[in-house]
Write a structure and sequence with these properties.
Helix 2 links the parallel strand 2 (31-35) and strand 3 (51-55). The protein has helices at residues 9-20, 41-47, 60-68, 89-99, 117-123, 154-159, 171-181, 202-214, 227-246, 248-254, 260-292; strands spanning 2-5, 31-35, 51-55, 76-78, 83-84, 105-107, 110-112, 134-135, 150-152, 186-188, 194-196. By secondary structure, it is an alpha/beta fold.
Length: 294
Amino acid sequence: MLIPCRDGAGALERCLRSVAAQRAQFNLQILVVDDGSRDSSAAIARELGAQVHSIEPAGRAAALNAGLEHAKGDPILFTDADCEVPPDWAAKLCEHLDQRPELHGVGGNLWPSARNPSELSKLLPYLDEFASEQELDPAERRTALNANNMALRASALRNVGGFDAGLLHGADADLTRRMLAAGSRLMRVLQPRVRHLKRDGLSGLCRTSYRRGSTVAVHLKSAEFGWTDVLRGFVQPLSFLVRGYAALPRLRGLLPDAPFGSALLAPWAGCCARMCEALGRLRYFVRYHRGSGR
């Protein structure tokens, strides 16, 4: 299994201890790819018995590709350094593939560890994925597998050349679409759920969204990125706000322990995040076209 990590010492120990619990059932190769960390991530990983492969800072997708060169198992399991997996995580993922040998990969959901507006806003676009299991449709581009909670057959993954290392964000969605286009069958499953240890406040959520917008959006090559894409980004915050409030009853049903005030503010937090992403896209657009002389 692969865990990419950059400066993740704060959560990595909990992640690795949860992964190590799977060894009672599986002979897991636990490989941490240290993406140029400046903290003690690599040392923590070695202390807890993981194999460590270190690279110069290159981004999460590049780190995952570096790990694929050393991964020996099949299927290959993925999670992130800021995630905590349940005790039956590996068993559940492999069980889905064993029961459905025609599938080339399965992925589960990410569960927030906090119930603040920012964390709840992350769930609003994905409530359908918590409602039922679904095999992914190559013609429908919204749903994807995520490398914080997935298992892929090694042959299908390597058949498409792994992740696109040129994408700083959206590499999981891009991989999903390329695998589907190559004929792979992929499925979103309800279990297992992985717990996200990161707890964003509004400022952290907005910073992440701005950085995401400042890089090439998934599916948009630089030369294809135009004013239409920029303007569409400034419509999305209002759209998210409207759809977010329409989805509040479903969110409350999924997380009955979430404070009512946090749930009520979640669409606004998501709206702010998407506005920051739109501003990041505008910044990217201006920089790209200045650099290309357009």
